[in-house]
Structures are given as structure tokens and as C-alpha cells.
Design goal:
Layout: E1 3-9, E2 18-24, E3 32-42, H1 44-51, E4 64-65, E5 69-77, E6 89-92, E7 105-109, E8 113-115, H2 122-125, H3 129-141, E9 150-154, H4 159-170, E10 174-179, H5 184-189, E11 193-196, H6 202-205, E12 209-214, H7 218-224, E13 228-236, H8 244-249, E14 253-256, H9 263-274, E15 282-287, H10 291-300, E16 306-310
Parallel strand pairs: 9-10, 9-12, 10-11, 12-13, 13-14, 15-16
Antiparallel strand pairs: 1-2, 1-4, 3-5, 3-7, 3-16, 5-6, 6-8
Helix pairs in contact: 3-4
């Protein structure tokens, strides 16, 4: 294709700065893969970039095409690419400096891409990369979770939280997770003991957990610290921690982290999906022309699983 539609920002701001416009289609440079995007996942980092919250650590260049979860069909490959060929079904997470998934086509480094799970609809696999890498790193890379340990996941019905429950259960941990009253059945269906954050304090349900994985934020994390055993680990997916004094009061070891693209990790995730050990709930699917609305829904919270942008048919 010579041109395509893309959802871009030309400045920082609210939902009004997102413009869906016709742009030149990208070309695959060396070690890059050009993908016809079928669908893209929506993540909180998308609206945080749009708002300018990330500009100190992520100095993007305008105009900037949003979106960092994609699934689609390989159109062409650049020099040096060996793992992929035209026609392959793929999914990936391009680095935040590149993004570009909210478009009809995008380029992505070969190292950031993997073949999509064969047992899952290609569109659905767009929901996997960021959520799954985030959940894995939080639980195991930074949380050091082991079989037989207990983990409390804050925000268990969201994209990261719902995947984290499945990964933790699969690793042999005992899992507790918070969610609203309407999502209690979702939590228990994934194998966790559900806690209604609207009516229950976590410490009234569980104490002495080895790990808290916070997918919500500082206020919820601070409230949950009485559930952590002394010397336990508090790991957060958001870019803020409870105060050092509060963490010290509970003897908590803490970690705040960002994730890196990894085709190797995505191959592991695809295998888990095809083995029936990992699934993803989809809340709402938007069109490319509705990116502003999708980001507003993500920013409002309360999603059940992931939000998707449908960019073109399979």
C-alpha cells in the first residue's frame, strides 16, 4: 500500500489531540518487518504518552503514531530478517520509541516479533504482548514468585491482572486478587480467591503473602500492605511507589519497573496459549476511527480484560 490510515498525535494533550489521518505507508528497513496490522491492543501507556506524562523518560518525535500491541500479517521483510516471511501470522510489541500499532500497517524489529498462537484468532492475539510481558516480569523477574508461595494481585480483572492470575496459578502459587463486585466470578474462574475491593480490606481476607503485584496504583497498594509478610515483595506496574517510610513500616522490598520488547518471551507466551494455559478476556473492540474513545475508556479504568482497536479484517 502506498498510503494508509494512522492514529497520530502532533502535540501532547487530551483525547482531542488524536487525529486519524492518511499517511505514507512505512517500508521495512534492515532487520525490520512490515506488518499489515489486523488489530492493536490498548494499554494505559498509550494515553500516558498522549498526555505527556512520559516525556521525561520517553522523548518522542511528533507526529507520533500511538499503539504498542499489534497482531497482523507480514507484508514484507527488510534485509537480514530470517525468522519471518510474507504471509506469516505474527504478534508483537514494538518499543515505545517506535510504537505505531494504531495504523493499517507498521514496521517492527524482527527481535520484537513472534509467530502468533495458532489456536487463537489473530485479532485476539493483539491483546497479549504488553499485558503478558508485564505480568511475567512482575511475577517472576522482579517478584521472584515460586511454587507454594502466596501472591496478592491488585486489579485482577484487567489485562495484566487477569494474565498474572493465570501465570501465578500455573506456577503453583496460591493466588488472591482484587476486583469489583461485578468481576468476582471472573477472578474465581481464573483460579484466584477473589476480594471485593469495594467491601473488603485485603488484610481481612489474607495476610502474610510473599508478593503483592499492584496493577492499580499507590493508594490501593498502600492499603494492601498489611497483607504482606515482613520482608515480602511489593512490585508495581505503575510508575509510582508508596513512600519509603510506609514500605519500611511493613518491611517491604519494592520494585517499580518497565518492560522491554522480547520476541523470545512472546514465543513462550504463544506456546502457553496453544497449550491451553493462557487466555485473554476482551472488553470492547473499537475501530481505528475510535482510538480517542478507546483511550478514554482505558483512562477511566474499570475495564474487564483488554480493549482492542480493529484496524483491518483478517
Amino acid at each position: 500500500m502506498e498510503s494508509m490510515k494512522a492514529a497520530r498525535i502532533h502535540r501532547y494533550g487530551g483525547k482531542e489531540v488524536v487525529v486519524v489521518e492518511q499517511v505514507d505507508s512505512p517500508k521495512a528497513e534492515p532487520y525490520e518487518v512490515l506488518v499489515r496490522v489486523v488489530a492493536a491492543g490498548v494499554n494505559p501507556v498509550d494515553w500516558k504518552i498522549r498526555e505527556g506524562y512520559m516525556q521525561q523518560v520517553l522523548p518522542i518525535r511528533f507526529p507520533y503514531t500511538l499503539g504498542c500491541d499489534l497482531a497482523g500479517i507480514v507484508e514484507s521483510t527488510g534485509a537480514g530478517v530470517t525468522r519471518f516471511s510474507a504471509g506469516d501470522r505474527v504478534f508483537g510489541y514494538p518499543s515505545l520509541m517506535r510504537c505505531g500499532a494504531f495504523a493499517e500497517a507498521a514496521t517492527i524489529l524482527e527481535s520484537e516479533l513472534a509467530h502468533a498462537p495458532v489456536s487463537m484468532d489473530l485479532e485476539m492475539s493483539a491483546a497479549l504482548p504488553v499485558a503478558c510481558i508485564t505480568a511475567f516480569d512482575g511475577l517472576f523477574t522482579h517478584g521472584s514468585l515460586e511454587a507454594g508461595q502466596r501472591v496478592l494481585i491488585l486489579g485482577g480483572s484487567g489485562g495484566v491482572g487477569s494474565v498474572a492470575i493465570q501465570m501465578a496459578v500455573g506456577a503453583g502459587a496460591q493466588v488472591y486478587a482484587t476486583a469489583s463486585a461485578r468481576n468476582q466470578q471472573l477472578i474465581t474462574g481464573l483460579g484466584a480467591i477473589a476480594i471485593d475491593y469495594g467491601s473488603q480490606a485485603t488484610a481481612d481476607v489474607v495476610r502474610d503473602v510473599d508478593l503483592i503485584l499492584d496493577c492499580v496504583g499507590v493508594e490501593s497498594g498502600t492499603s494492601a500492605l498489611p497483607s504482606l509478610k515482613a520482608g515480602g515483595r511489593y512490585v508495581t506496574t505503575v510508575y509510582a511507589l508508596p513512600s519509603a517510610e510506609v514500605l519500611a513500616q511493613f518491611g517491604a522490598k519494592s520494585a517499580m519497573y518497565g518492560i522491554q520488547p522480547s520476541g523470545d518471551r512472546l514465543r513462550e507466551i504463544a506456546a502457553l496459549v496453544d497449550q491451553g494455559k493462557l487466555s485473554m478476556a476482551i472488553d470492547t473492540i473499537y475501530s481505528l476511527d475510535q482510538v480517542s474513545e478507546a483511550l478514554a475508556a482505558s483512562q477511566a479504568g474499570r475495564t474487564r480484560g483488554k480493549l482492542l482497536i480493529r484496524t483491518s479484517p483478517n
